[in-house]
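INTERNAL AUDIT FORM
Audit reference: QA-55
Scope: verify that the stored structure record matches its stored sequence.
Auditor: D.O.
Record contents follow.
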Amino acid sequence: MSHKRHKKNAPESVRVAVVTVSDTRTKEDDSSGRIIKETLAENGHRVVEYDVIRDDARMIREKIEHILSSDVDVIITNGGTGVSKRDVTVEALQGLIEKELPGFGELFRYLSYKQIGATAILSRAFAGVSKEKAVICLPGSKNAVALGMNFIVGELGHLVWEVRK
C-alpha cells in the first residue's frame, strides 16, 4: 500500500499530550510548549494533556509512564535533549521505547544543519513507539520546536495509523 493510501486511511485528528521539560519555564512563559500546542490546534489535532516538569529523569519517566497509560495517541516532549548534565530526557525514556524511529532524529538534525550548521550535532532529538503510542522528543528552543513541528505535524495521523496496525 502506498504512503498516499496510508495517509488517506489515517485519522485526521489525533489526541496529543505535550510535556515541556525545563528547570526554568512555567506554564505561563513556556513559549516552546505554546508553539507545539498552537501548531497542533492549527492542524486539527487535540491537546488533551499539557504540563511543565523539571529536568529530572525520575520525574520525566514517571510523567511519561502515566501518559502512556492514558487515552492519547502521541506524546510530544520538548527540552532535555542536549548534551549538558541536566539534559536527561533521552536517558529517562530510553527504557520505555519499544521501537525507535531513527529517521526522525536524522531528518531533524539534517534540517537543523541547514539552519544552524554543525551545531546540529548537539541535538539528541528522537522519536519512538511505546504502548502503541508515538513518542516524539524535541529540543527546547523555540526555533527547534518550530522546525520539528513543521515537518512532523502533517505525519501525525499517518504515524498513529501505522502504530495501531
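Auditor finding: record pair retrieved intact. The domain at 14-164 is CATH 3.40.980.10 (Molybdenum Cofactor Biosythetic Enzyme; Chain A).
Action required: none
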